[in-house]
Amino acid sequence: MGSLFSFITINPIIYHLHTNIMNKITELSKGHIGSAEGTLEELFNNTNDTIKDSGISFSTNFTKANINPYIRGMFISISNHKKNHYDIEKNFRKQYQSVLKALGIKVGRDDIHKQYGLPIRTTINGLIEKGIPIAIAGIHDYENEDKDDGITYQHTHLLIYNIHHFLPNNKKQLASCIKRVRATLGRYVGKKFRRDGVDVRPVGTYKHYTNEQFDDDSFYDYLHNPSNSPNRDCLINYIKKNRHNPDVNYRLTYLYHNNDYLPVNLSNRTITTN
User: Fold this and answer.
1) DSSP 71
2) Number of structural domains, the chain?
3) Sequence-ordered strand ranges (E) for 84-144
4) Range of the domain at 166
5) How far apart are CA 173 and CA 190, in angstroms?
6) Does residue 265 fall inside a structural domain?
7) Model-level pTM?
């Protein structure tokens, strides 16, 4: 049964749809690839059926199954222009806030928890149960020095889990949401590549990591891969490793909303509950 809500504060558990089994998402369109070389080009496949106003698409199998492609999370890459890791790291709270704002969720920066090092299991599992998005942010060096000043700058990768609760399943509505996410994050790119320096993908739809095996129950164990299985070929290890300069390792940053409820603007949105 669908119900139309105005702007209210809602516990995401109300419409949390637990899905432990997900059909493989077979195709994704060529997304908006960042302009800075060495960031995104080698990660993604070219696919078909592009939704032109968003840069994403879904396979026919996915559409029929009506499974949100972001059920395993959202992978964001920002091709920062002339930014060092200090500049990037201080914006992580703002970036988490911007993603939520693009989805109709307005939170204060003081309500966003930020820490280095993996939170304890009960914290992660509690956030998942409440439907609170969890962000893991990493920093990588570019492969080459900047042509103008000979300095090696850095860029950003974000994995946001539990975000699918706030994304529509309808393809056009979802495309609009992703377009807003990219637009709000553009301010963190830098002047040169602001328009096309943000890439947003569902986790598990890029060529090197198409077999990510985790769900709500195993997500915390998955986050332990950088310490327990650093050589495993998976997205979280990719985010952790500074592959172009392995002698310099930037710490992972974990972010989440502190409170039990998120103020969700549900105007013009229909939520289906069982």
Assistant:
1) G
2) 1
3) 112-116, 134-141
4) 24-260
5) 28
6) no
7) 0.73
